[in-house]
Amino acid sequence: METRVAIIAIIVEKADAAESINAILHEYSDAVIGRMGIPYRQKGINIISVAVDTTQNDINTIAGRIGRLDGVTAKTVYSAT
């Protein structure tokens, strides 16, 4: 199967969503290249970027499941190749 590289940008406004986010990312840990999390205390949010290399379907599934969590927004940026 053909894979793509993408970045999933996640904004977490409700801290109790962290466990669910981690569980979803753990399910797809083979696809994760790396991740970075930044707590932005002044705004009371967390910013997470996750680099992945997997199928288009898996990328959509990961971002969709995370983005449907309460207090969480997820958007994806894809590489050209």
Description of the structure:
By secondary structure, this protein is α+β, with helices and mostly antiparallel strands. The chain is 27% helix and 43% strand. The protein has two helices and four strands, in the order βαββαβ. Strands 2-3-1-4 form a four-stranded antiparallel sheet, covered by helices on one side. The radius of gyration is 12 Å and the shape is globular. The mean pLDDT is 96.
Topology:
Blueprint: E1 4-12, H1 18-27, E2 32-40, E3 45-54, H2 56-67, E4 72-78
Antiparallel strand pairs: 1-3, 1-4, 2-3
Average pLDDT value?
96
The gyration radius over C-alpha positions equals: 12 Å
The SSE order reads EHEEHE
Q: Main beta sheet, described?
A: 4 strands, antiparallel
Number of strands: 4
Strand content: 35-45%
Q: End-to-end distance, in Å? A: 14 Å
Continuous helix count: 2
Overall geometric form: globular
Structural class: alpha+beta
Which spans have pLDDT < 50 for at least 5 consecutive residues?
Answer: none
Question: Strand order, biggest sheet?
Answer: 2-3-1-4
Helix content: 25-40%
Short description:
With 81 residues, the protein is an alpha+beta fold.
Key traits:
4-stranded antiparallel beta sheet, 2 helices, globular, 27% helix, 81 residues, alpha+beta
